[in-house]
Design brief:
Helices cover 36% and strands 18% of the residues. It is an alpha/beta fold. It is globular, with a radius of gyration of 21 Å.
Length: 370
């Protein structure tokens, strides 16, 4: 089976979409499947990382090198993330796919919808969409949305997908690296006491949330805490973060780690944002204080907060150090609350979502072949 991924990373988009596609691609490769990536040459793309993982990578022209035909159709909310019109993107993607016999095309992009998918369906066997927003129509065989909770999750997509589309919904299908399942099985129950904190916001940090968290942790009541800080490739001011780390004792800085799992196991509390990291730390029962760095994170963060699975502080743009201070103080003073919350998280995410998704792709292809 040969699988192509159409996914982008950039300073604006972040890195999470490519990272979760790489996780799925690595699982498929372990089963003997060939995978290739098609990404646009945005500033902050992860082409080097994809190549380092030994995957074939095709870079579409950067936005300034592509012509943008007139488009009288209403734009999607995230259309600007594409950098070109969807018609141009479809044409350029088809040119790449023309050299390959693709069984599955996996699309993880908020700027692409059913119009694009219908054009690409002519060149590939099946299409799988990875989405989080349910804000546009899709034409696909399988749709995966790991970022939904609640009893009526299927209603999110009922009117937005074609008849017969198989829906994989909820953190049961979270695309996590295999070590998360292994560590979760070996990890004992947490006692809720906090001595080490992990700070990680994401591949980029447009609102300098990392600095806000670190400034707060310099407060006297938190001086005893050990702190691990991780920043991604597209962080806007790594020098500032490095200086803050240098100025605080018991603090270490890491850049561009392939996985947070080891640091998550060691930590007792995390200060972070939304996205796929939610499911990684929940799999390991790591309590977390969260602020959204993008609007598309708000809905799931609010739901997690409402279910007492995180302390949600709202959007990073309007966050104050006082709010972070009070949240950290609450966590330090309530170990029993932390322990109960940790156990609740671990019942939601078992860490096998990537395997479930890979098996679905194989099962669908086998059904079509027979």
């Amino acid at each position: 089976m040969k699988v192509a991924f159409r996914v982008d990373a950039s300073v604006q988009i972040g890195t999470g979409h490519v990272i979760r596609c790489l996780t799925l691609a690595e699982d498929l490769r372990r089963q003997g499947y060939q995978c290739l990536f098609i990404c646009r040459n945005h500033e902050g793309n992860l082409a080097d990382l994809i190549a380092q993982k030994d995957f074939e990578i095709h870079l579409l022209p950067s936005p300034e090198q592509s012509t943008m035909p007139a488009n009288n159709e209403p734009d999607l909310e995230h259309s600007c993330w594409l950098g070109v019109s969807w018609q141009t993107d479809a044409k350029q993607t088809l040119e790449v796919l023309g050299y390959h016999n693709i069984d599955w095309l996996i699309v993880d992009h908020y700027a692409l919808d059913a119009q694009w998918e219908r054009l690409l369906a002519e060149a590939v066997g099946q299409i799988m969409v990875i989405d989080d927003l349910a804000d546009r129509d899709h034409q696909c065989t399988v749709l995966l949305d790991q970022n939904v909770l609640g009893g009526d999750v299927k209603q999110r997509y009922e009117a937005k997908v074609n008849k017969g589309c198989e829906l994989l919904l909820g953190p049961h299908y979270a695309l996590l690296r295999p070590e998360y399942e292994m560590l979760a099985r070996a990890l004992p129950e947490r006692d809720g006491k906090i001595s080490r904190v992990l700070v990680f916001v994401g591949g980029s940090d447009p609102y300098h949330l990392t600095e806000c968290y670190l400034d707060t942790l310099r407060s006297k009541p938190f001086e005893h805490l050990f702190v691990d800080v991780v920043i991604g490739k597209n962080h806007p001011s790594p020098e500032t973060v490095e200086q803050l780390v240098t100025n605080r004792s018991k603090t270490r800085l890491y850049c561009g780690l392939p996985s947070l799992s080891a640091l998550m196991v060691r930590a007792d509390l995390m200060l972070g944002a939304g996205g796929a990291t939610n499911w990684e730390r929940m799999c390991l029962g790591l309590n977390c204080i969260v602020s959204s760095v993008a609007r598309n994170q708000d809905e799931i963060n609010r739901e997690l907060g409402a279910q007492d699975l995180i302390q949600f502080l709202g959007d990073a743009e309007s966050l104050s150090m006082v709010e972070v201070y009070e949240a950290v103080k609450f966590a330090l003073e309530h170990p029993e609350y932390n322990r109960v919350q940790s156990n609740a998280m671990r019942t939601i995410v078992d860490g096998r979502g990537t395997q479930y998704a890979s098996q679905t792709l194989k099962d669908v292809r086998d059904r079509v072949a027979s």
